[in-house]
């Protein structure tokens, strides 16, 4: 099993295809090489009104990534830190 990382669009399409092939989440997790709970969370998080929707899931993941707060320390703050050190 790998460490946490977001699914790629390719992996989402792979999951969709495996679901259509009626594989259970445990089997899908082994094929995609993630924990079965990761598959479960992905399916719950990105489920649309008509079931799992890969394009929608990718769009939602991209939006979550874009909206993620990125804190950056400004150069003036670094200057103050260096001054007081």
Write up this protein.
With 85 residues, this protein is mostly helical. The protein has 5 helices and 2 strands. The chain has helices spanning 9-20, 25-32, 36-45, 54-67, 75-84; strands at residues 47-48, 51-52. A two-stranded antiparallel ribbon has the order 1-2. α1 (9-20) runs antiparallel to α4 (54-67) and α2 packs across α3 (36-45). It is elongated. The model has no long low-confidence stretch (mean pLDDT 81).
Topology:
Layout: H1 9-20, H2 25-32, H3 36-45, E1 47-48, E2 51-52, H4 54-67, H5 75-84
Antiparallel strand pairs: 1-2
Distance between the termini: 43 Å
Order of helices and strands: HHHEEHH
Radius of gyration: 19 Å
Query: What's the shape?
Result: elongated
Number of helices: 5
Structural class: mainly alpha
Mean residue pLDDT: 81
Strand content: under 5%
Number of domains: 1
Question: Which regions are unreliable across 5 or more consecutive residues at pLDDT < 50?
Answer: none
């Amino acid at each position: 099993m790998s460490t946490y990382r977001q699914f790629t669009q390719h992996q989402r399409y792979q999951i969709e295809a495996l679901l259509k092939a009626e594989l259970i989440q445990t089997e899908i997790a082994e094929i995609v090489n993630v924990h079965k709970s990761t598959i479960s969370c992905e399916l719950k998080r990105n489920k649309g009104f008509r079931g799992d929707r890969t394009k929608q899931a990718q769009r939602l993941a991209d939006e979550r990534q874009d909206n993620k707060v990125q804190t950056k320390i400004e150069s003036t703050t670094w200057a103050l830190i260096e001054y007081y050190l």
